[in-house]
């Protein structure tokens, strides 16, 4: 007896072996008539005797300690998962557990294998089908931002898009949260998205060269790469991309302090398809890198943007000499570049194809420099100068004289420019200049000048003066006489412009104005607007009177009568009332598409029928801050003007 | 006496070119190598047996040729001479007796029946793998350890077929995956994006 109680639980108590020694308690055969060799006195485990009928419940199974697939090592899981063909099954497995997802994302195309089927032909065709399916053509694009930018999401994207057309464009915006993208995520993308064409990584401090190398190895069809604020990436990673992705055409680097000259010289050597490069705020980039980049023979850059770099005159000299294919050049905030740099660039005679030049705050851009550039770039069509504080009227005029094909001139915050310079440009532009734009040039003073008679500038089509406080009526009337063929006029934020000035401009205009923007010219009244529409209503398509407080219903009446072609009207913050809107609605042949009434507090619910009538052609309506329009009216409008996009 | 008969029999079996080749250099001189050793080496010693010791200290005796043909690990052990036929046994501490017995069954069957037709072999394999998931994983770990390529492929294929075509909740149940490791947001996102998989 004591032997029985002292029993410690060994299976060979039962002569036939314990029936519970084998794994699956569900096997039915176990409970069929027990053979005589099995002792019915139950197993030597410390559990109560279970009498027939045998009752199953869950806890019995748990006590059996069924092991799970989780106990298998990673390499076994890898082998199992890599045998799954690309398709739904893989996407489903990606959602089973995190471990399966990460394992799947590590499988690259070459590692997937199919069943060995009996007929060799069918296995071959299955394999080909898989090759095409995996990675696809890169139709899909994904963007991860903030909290969603994690390795798991990336792995899920890599696995999920592989069989649905393939990932073509990926952009990741990092954040400062705890779960971030790391090299693992990029590795998953490298393995799973061979058709990736465009990759954009912003603000991710946790990825470094390793991740970029994985991308380089896996995504060899990469065409565009954009890195911003990735401090851990160095030359090594980028060189790997440059060497392995022959189709790279656009590269943009911003605020990556560890990318420097080595990488640029590698680009010069290996990238033959690169067309556009933008480097901003990378402190390790210097003259040497730029020199290697431009002087290489197999690289023909056409768009170049260099901003906030420590490069000096030497780089500009190189660009001026070697930039044979450059069509768009942007130089912003280069503190070490002096007048000599621009002079050498212009005299280098290499920038023959330059069409567009943009120069930001560079102290080096002086009169001499600009003139040299004008001489040296015979095909220059557009120039945009920002904050060129040293540029004077003489310099501007000599520049315009030196160029032979300038079509567009844009000056922003060039405070030494005054009317003289401006008018000098108009006189000397040689009938090619089409557009001129001045923004925030505080050097303008409205002087009454007597000018020598000169032929008017027939080619100027577009005039844009924004926020130049000295601009006034006198200049405007001179302008009017000088530029009779204007079609687009933009006079924004000019307090000095009054009705008389505008009138003289309008009267001199022979061509017919198409787009007129008079926003924030607070001193304009109905009289000006009425004259405008009377004289030019038959060509006017876009009219913007945003912020013109003195414009009221009378203008609306005039507009309604005279502007059959008007499609975009902006009367925000004007003193328009319901009468005005009603007048608009009465117009015959009115084809208004976009109407903006934001800030018109005098427009109330009574305008509803007029708005509805206008709404038959409206595509966009802006009634934000219209305090007198109730929300029920807004709802009704939204309901009835279903074609129209309403902002309220 | 016996040895002489065997020797003659083996010499008769060897093709003539090989008999001529039974010469090996020993200490700078060419010495004629006894033919039966060459043949035995070529055939992997069919009569020799090796001992495998499971984690439960149970000893299994198997024909050397059978294990050498299937298991890369055992093949390497025997080739590099670290295994002494008279005395040693190969300890396999990660494989328990039950699994080891099954592995030996598999190798033996496949060696002796490798000329059978494909269907019969597949049927035998299917029957062989008719075990519960615990047993399957144990077999997999054993085959992985011993590097038995065709058994591994077989088991991987079986598990893959268990996964194929199933919904995610079913897969988690079959494979007893208790904690999927995703955060609640991620799990919810997955359910929204792929509702037909759940």
TrEMBL record, chain A:
Cellular compartments per GO CC: SCF ubiquitin ligase complex
Annotated F-box domain residues: 72-113
Superkingdom of source: Eukaryota
SUPFAM superfamilies: F-box domain, RNI-like
GO annotation, biological process: SCF-dependent proteasomal ubiquitin-dependent protein catabolic process
Entry protein name: EIN3-binding F-box protein 1
Gene name of the encoded protein: LOC107495316
TrEMBL record, chain B:
Pathway this chain belongs to: Protein modification; protein ubiquitination
Residues annotated as domain SKP1 component dimerisation: 150-195
Span of the signal peptide: 1-28
Keywords tagged on the record: Signal, Ubl conjugation pathway
Stretches assigned to the SKP1 component POZ domain: 48-111
Pfam family, one: Skp1_POZ
Keyword hit for Cytoplasm: no
SMART domains noted in UniProt: Skp1
Family: Belongs to the SKP1 family.
Protein name: SKP1-like protein 11 isoform X4
Annotated source species: Arachis duranensis (Wild peanut)
Gene name per UniProt: LOC107491915
